[in-house]
Each structure stands twice: as C-alpha cells, then as structure tokens.
C-alpha cells in the first residue's frame, strides 16, 4: 500500500483549509471519508497522496424527508439511507440502487459524498501495470480503446477515455433532479447533480466541477409525484457484489392508463450518470403498451458508440429502460 500521513482535523473548516492548498486533481493531499474506494486505490498504487484528510465525524449524516423532498447529509452511509423508511416509501429508486450496490460491509462504511466521487472501475485505470491511461497519467493514451472494453461506456465517450461512471446511487439521483450542496474555503454553493461530473473530452483526469478542497456536504432531491413510483433495474454479471453492466432508473407519474411524466437515467453505459430527456419526452402521454415503450427507449441510443466488446450495451440499455419503466409504473 502507498504510505500516507492521516490528518484528523477537529472541524470541517480545518479540513477545508488543509485540502484547499493542494490543487485540483489527484493531489498530494486528498480527503478520505468511508475509505472503501480510497483505500483500494492506495493498495493498487493508482493514487499516491502524501496526506489524507479524514472527513469522519465532520459531515452532517442526517436523513430528512419532508414536504419539500429529501435531504441526505454528505456523511450519511449507504446502509443508513437504503434502510430509511421515508426513502423506501417515497424514493424507492434510491433505496433500491443502494441495496443493489456493493456488500453490506461496504454499505455500512461508505458515505453519500464518497459514493458520488468514487473513481471508475476501468481495469486499466486501477492496474498501474498498464502505462496508457489518460485519466491516471494525462497524455499517456487509453488502453481500453482497442483493448478489452466490455465494461466501458457507449455514451459521452471521447477518443481519450471511455470509462463508465460506476455509481448506482448517482443514476437514481440524477433521474430525480437531485442537487449537491458543496462547501469550500470560499463559501457554499449548490449545483445540479447532472452538472457535477464532467465529460472526459480532452481532459479525462478532470472528473468533476469541484474546486480544490471543496466538499460535498449534502444531497437534496425535490419532491415529485413520480418519485414514489420508481424502480432501479441493474443488470450485472453476478447477483451480488458487482458493478452494473447496464442499469436503468425509472420514475413514473401515471394519469389513468397513460404516463403523465417520466424520469429516466442510465448507468454502466455513460461516462457520467446519464439522463435521457429524449426518452422522457417520448414517454410523456404514452400508454404502457410495449411497442410505445420500445420506441421511446430506442431514442436512448442517439449518439451511442460501441468499441467492440461493449456493442451489446446499446440494445441492452433499451431493454433495461422498458423493464424499469414498466416495473415503476406498476408499483
Ligand atoms: C467490493 C466493492 C464493491 C462495490 N460495488 C459497488 C456497486 O455495485 N455500486 C456502486 O455504486 N458502488 C460500489 N462500490 C463502491 C462504493 O460504493 C464506494 O467505494 C463508496 O461509496 C465510496 O464511499 P466512501 O465514503 O468509502 O468514499 P472514500 O473511499 O472515502 O472516498 C472516495 C472519493 O471521494 C472523495 N470524498 C469522499 N467524501 C467526500 C466529500 N464529502 N466531499 C468531497 N470529496 C469526498 C475522496 O477524496 C475520494 O476521492 C463498491 C466498492 C467495493 C469496495
Ligand atoms: S477508458 Fe479512461 S480510465 Fe480507462 S484506460 Fe482509457 S483513459 Fe484510462
């Protein structure tokens, strides 16, 4: 494991100050929250910070459900959020996405902020034996393009990186128009979750819009009648402890036998959590007839580009959308 110094600041202000001086990305000073991703990366030498600033005990971990919607403290664990009665009842897609993630041990330890900021599972990023990885070593190339790319993205890719975003939670949240509260030395701001992660473009090593030292302090989800009728469908290689090959989050408000509004997002296929507004627009006013659902789902393939081994995802994601929408609508 890469050696490091662990800083235990007494409050969040001190943590922000320690981290802010260290620069934007893969910096010599980094935060650690639950540590479930960071420690793996240190073990693999994929990240080599000199210091880790612990956020343990410094972040709000409350879970609040009210008329305005849902608020999740950045330090709440995956297990706590998944088991919260208000989340299960009013935002089932969030609870389901979390329960389909990782293992009970990981979920007991991992936090909301850390989940959104976990790094890609691209094996070339995590295995430093491969030299070509623009995300880990900018300018070195991309071993996945032309390599083994069954796990990689088909949407939002560039010629510099095709890594899929790994978080299941983020897919459910982006479907529900979640926002992220951020705090840095310069103050506080709120951004839509859809804008938190960046497309790889020419700079895949810059993964988010966070400024150096900024911390995710909370996630908010506005109240929406569609959220109650929601479902997370995850297709994976084995039934537990596995990341998504393809996933779909669907949230549906019905008007009699027709869909009044739909919220749909995809995981395992995008370089960031991938909302599909064109599918949502086609679903509005549609019946649950399978032809109508398939026609709407087909629009998700706009702009999709397979790289060989992952071509199958383009059809699979359409099927996942149909199944997620049907299941949500009948909930
Ligand atoms: C075996 C295994 C299986 C897994 N399977 C899945 C899965 O199926 N689906 C899935 O979605 N995930 C899965 N995961 C990933 C897991 O969800 C993440 O490791 C976890 O959510 C990260 O949270 P953490 O608090 O431990 O973050 P850490 O590991 O502590 O940190 C992760 C990153 O976030 C940064 N960070 C942490 N908190 C904050 C904050 N509040 N503000 C700013 N930066 C912060 C850290 O600096 C670091 O870069 C799996 C993990 C393991 C180990
Ligand atoms: S897909 Fe991205 S993370 Fe994977 S090897 Fe290519 S540049 Fe690195």
Automatic annotation (TrEMBL):
Q: Could you tell me which InterPro entries the record lists for this protein?
A: CO_DH_flav_C, CO_DH_flav_C_dom_sf, Diverse_Substr_Oxidored, FAD-bd_PCMH, FAD-bd_PCMH-like_sf, FAD-bd_PCMH_sub1, FAD-bd_PCMH_sub2, Mopterin_DH_FAD-bd
Q: Which SUPFAM superfamilies match?
A: CO dehydrogenase flavoprotein C-terminal domain-like, FAD-binding/transporter-associated domain-like
Coiled coil ranges? none
Is Flavoprotein included in the keywords of this UniProt record?
Answer: yes
Keyword Ribonucleoprotein attached: no
Which keywords does this chain's UniProt record carry? Answer: FAD, Flavoprotein
Residues covered by the FAD-binding PCMH-type domain: 1-226
Q: Which Gene3D superfamilies match?
A: 3.30.465.10, CO dehydrogenase flavoprotein, C-terminal domain, Uridine Diphospho-n-acetylenolpyruvylglucosamine Reductase, domain 2
- Which GO molecular function annotation, any one, does this entry have? oxidoreductase activity
Protein name, UniProt field:
Xanthine dehydrogenase, FAD binding subunit
What is the originating organism of this protein?
Answer: Mesorhizobium alhagi CCNWXJ12-2
Per the UniProt record, the lineage of the source organism begins with: Bacteria, Pseudomonadati, Pseudomonadota, Alphaproteobacteria, Hyphomicrobiales
């Amino acid at each position: 494991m890469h050696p490091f110094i662990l800083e235990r600041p007494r409050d969040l202000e001190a943590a922000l100050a320690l981290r802010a001086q260290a620069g934007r990305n893969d910096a010599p000073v980094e935060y650690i929250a639950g540590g479930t991703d960071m420690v793996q990366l240190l073990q693999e030498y994929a990240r080599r910070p000199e210091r880790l600033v612990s956020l343990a005990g410094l972040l709000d971990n409350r879970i609040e459900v009210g008329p305005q919607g849902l608020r999740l403290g950045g330090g709440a664990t995956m297990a706590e959020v998944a088991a919260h009665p208000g989340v299960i009842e009013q935002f089932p897609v969030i609870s389901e996405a979390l329960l389909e993630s990782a293992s009970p041990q990981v979920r007991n330890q991992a936090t909301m902020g850390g989940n959104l900021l976990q790094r890609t599972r691209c094996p070339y990023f995590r295995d430093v034996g491969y030299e070509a990885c623009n995300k880990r070593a900018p300018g070195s190339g991309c071993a996945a393009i032309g390599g083994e790319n069954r796990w990689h993205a088909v949407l939002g890719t560039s010629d510099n990186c095709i890594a899929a975003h790994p978080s299941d939670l983020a897919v459910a949240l982006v479907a529900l128009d979640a926002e992220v509260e951020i705090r840095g030395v310069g103050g506080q701001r709120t951004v839509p979750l859809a804008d938190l992660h960046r497309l790889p473009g020419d700079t895949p090593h810059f993964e988010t819009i966070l400024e150096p030292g900024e911390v995710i302090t909370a996630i908010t989800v506005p109240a929406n009648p569609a959220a109650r009728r929601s479902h997370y469908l995850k297709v994976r290689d084995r039934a537990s402890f596995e990341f998504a090959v393809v996933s779909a989050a669907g949230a549906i408000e019905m008007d009699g036998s027709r869909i009044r509004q739909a919220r749909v997002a995809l995981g395992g296929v995008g370089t960031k959590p991938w909302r599909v507004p064109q599918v949502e627009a086609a679903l509005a006013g549609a019946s649950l007839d399978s032809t109508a659902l398939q026609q709407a789902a087909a629009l998700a393939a706009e702009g999709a580009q397979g790289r060989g081994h992952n071509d199958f995802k383009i059809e699979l994601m359409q099927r996942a959308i149909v199944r997620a929408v049907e299941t949500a609508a009948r909930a």
